[in-house]
């Protein structure tokens, strides 16, 4: 199904209603009519929990500490009250921006700026600037030479502009820290303090984070005054819309075969595959391309323009499989991503939550599958503790692991399809689906499942008809097992 086809749009609206609070309407939140119009144009029918709770509180002027996960609708929860404040277009005291939104990554900053433009479409005079590393500094400086109302930035690049006096923050009325936990994880604590010190003490501070404990709590105590604390339980990653699976993998070669099989599944639209390193992201992506998948890598060593281009192609549906590292994939919000596959298990449970949040966007259903080696089961348990959800063990017929999880993980406990030949795992066999190949050169998903002849692509039908064992015995291309 095309990502942006009409049926898809309708489906999205139907799904969206699921993760939202019933009997609540956007027009009960006290937002300006111009913003309500923009919201209606997006197709949202009702506000999500975090929006219901955070928007009125922010509009009262309180500082907020909001624990919310990615996918919960948090961007609109802070963007809408900021825009509402700007509607009267009271000129700033000086010429500096009135709202500053800090995010941990470039992709997330761009995503947030897009959201600001979407919800602020009725404010024709509104000027925004997105200040992120990897993009030309002087183009950003030129943008800042004209009045800007809202700045969205990553901390490092913002500090560069402050130090070179391209920007002043003395007119800031609202400071938003988005994914504050992640910014601290990424070592931005000092930069954040420097930036905050350049803003007026009278500002309103809205801090959003997956967790409000530990170091985040300490930072919050320093930056906010008498904050209202909002904890939201129904974030996408903790609610049931993402099916979370575990697959045991014996070796790199085994992972490669599992991955190939999963990517051929009937229910797969687009996938993000996570690897532990930039090098392996490149290698896995190349290997998948060689096998006929429309895959591309995304990692921090790529130039920002290449990263942007890759994300655009992903959004347009021209890339079926994005192979990414943690940081690069943060903030990706593409409705067509039906599957997240952790080729390498994450190192921290928090990273797991952020990774799987790339699917199940806007209340849709998603599937997250993590490959674990037998020595990595401690991480599987840590993830289950963190999310409060068991990982259902799946196997693919013909690709069973030699090592098996402990007895406690057998089907009785998770209700999963471990060894269940009739379960979802069987649907993921290569023959079961249309497959994600790259026949037309544009990477769009083919109706008939053919790949381009004469260019090293496999004809998907043939590949699908062969049993997994046969495929693994077939002559290998040099990089076929991602080494
Ligand atoms: P976020 O948590 O801000 O990354 O948002 C996740 C996704 O939810 C984005 O695709 C938003 O466009 C979408 N979204 C935000 N608010 C709503 C809403 N009230 N109803 C449906 N979808 C929404």
Task: Describe what this molecule looks like in 3D.
With 483 residues, this protein is an alpha/beta fold. 38% of the residues lie in helices and 13% in strands. The protein has 20 helices and 14 strands. It has helices at residues 6-16, 33-42, 49-60, 74-86, 106-119, 137-144, 155-163, 180-185, 189-197, 214-223, 252-263, 278-290, 304-315, 326-329, 349-356, 377-387, 411-414, 424-427, 460-465, 468-473, and strands spanning 64-67, 99-102, 128-131, 150-153, 174-177, 204-209, 228-231, 242-248, 270-274, 295-298, 321-324, 337-342, 366-372, 392-393. The protein has a seven-stranded parallel β-sheet, with helices on both faces. A seven-stranded parallel β-sheet has the order 10-11-9-12-13-8-14, with helices on both faces. α13 (304-315) links the parallel β10 and β11. α3 packs parallel to α4 (74-86), α7 packs across α9 (189-197) and α15 (349-356) packs across α16 (377-387). The two termini are 33 Å apart. Residues 1-22, 234-239 and 411-483 have low confidence and may be disordered. Residues 16, 20, 44, 47-48, 51, 70-76, 333, 361-363 line the site of adenosine monophosphate (AMP).
């Amino acid at each position: 199904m095309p990502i942006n086809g009409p049926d898809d749009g309708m489906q999205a609206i139907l799904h969206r209603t699921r993760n939202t609070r019933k009997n609540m309407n956007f027009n009960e939140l006290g937002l300006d009519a111009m913003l309500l119009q923009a919201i209606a144009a997006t197709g949202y029918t009702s506000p999500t929990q975090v929006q219901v709770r955070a928007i009125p509180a922010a509009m009262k002027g309180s500082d907020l500490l909001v624990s919310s996960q990615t996918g919960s609708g948090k961007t609109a929860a802070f963007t809408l009250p900021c825009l509402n404040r700007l509607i009267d277009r009271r000129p700033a005291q000086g010429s500096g921006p009135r709202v500053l939104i800090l995010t941990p990554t470039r992709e997330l900053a761009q995503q947030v700026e897009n959201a600001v433009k979407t919800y602020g479409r009725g404010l024709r005079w509104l000027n925004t600037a997105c200040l992120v590393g990897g993009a030309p500094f002087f183009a950003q400086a030129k943008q800042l030479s004209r009045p800007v109302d809202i700045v969205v930035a990553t901390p490092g690049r913002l500090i560069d502009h402050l130090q070179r006096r391209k920007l002043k923050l003395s007119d800031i009325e609202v400071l938003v820290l988005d994914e504050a936990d992640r910014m601290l994880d990424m070592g931005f604590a000092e930069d954040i303090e420097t930036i905050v010190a350049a803003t007026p003490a009278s500002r309103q501070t809205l801090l959003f984070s997956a967790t409000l404990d530990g170091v985040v709590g300490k930072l919050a105590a320093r930056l906010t005054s008498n904050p209202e604390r909002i904890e939201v339980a129904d974030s996408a990653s903790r609610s049931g819309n993402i099916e979370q699976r575990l697959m045991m993998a014996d070796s790199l070669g085994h992972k490669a075969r599992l991955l190939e099989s999963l990517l051929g599944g009937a229910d797969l639209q687009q996938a993000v595959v996570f690897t532990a390193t930039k090098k392996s992201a490149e290698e896995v992506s190349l290997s998948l391309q060689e096998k006929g998948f429309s895959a591309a890598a995304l990692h921090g060593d790529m130039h920002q323009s290449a990263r942007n281009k890759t994300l655009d192609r992903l959004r347009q549906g021209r890339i079926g499989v994005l192979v990414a590292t943690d940081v690069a994939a943060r903030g990706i919000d593409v409705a067509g991503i039906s599957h997240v596959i952790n080729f390498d298990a994450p190192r921290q449970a928090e990273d797991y939550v952020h990774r799987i949040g790339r699917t199940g966007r806007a209340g849709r259903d998603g599937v997250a599958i993590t490959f674990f080696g037998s020595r990595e089961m401690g991480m599987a348990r840590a993830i289950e503790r963190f999310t409060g959800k068991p990982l259902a063990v799946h196997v693919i017929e013909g690709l069973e692991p030699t090592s098996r999880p402990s007895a406690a993980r057998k089907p009785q406990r998770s209700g999963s399809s471990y060894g269940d030949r009739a379960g979802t795992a069987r649907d993921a066999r290569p023959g079961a689906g249309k497959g994600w190949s790259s026949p037309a050169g544009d990477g769009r998903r083919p109706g008939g499942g053919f790949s381009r002849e004469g260019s090293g692509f496999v004809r998907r039908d043939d590949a699908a008809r062969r049993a997994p064992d046969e495929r693994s015995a077939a002559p290998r291309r040099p990089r076929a097992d991602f080494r």
